Amino acid sequence: MFDGISIQLLMGQLLVGLINGSFYAMLSMGLAIIFGLMHVVNFAHGAQYMLGAFVAWLLLHTFGINYWGALFIAPVVVAIFGMVMERLILKPIHHLDHLYGLLATYAVTLIIEGLIRQQYGSSGLPYSSPIPGGVNLGFMFLPWYRLWVVLFSFAMCLGTWYLIEHTKLGSYLRAANENPEIVESFGINVPRMITLTYAFGVGLAGLSGVLAAPIYQVSPSMGSSLMIVIFAVVVIGGMGSIMGAILTGYLLGVVEGLTKVFYPEGANLVIFVIMIFALVLRPQGLFSKKEGV
Question: pTM higher than 0.85, yes or no?
Answer without folding.
Answer: yes
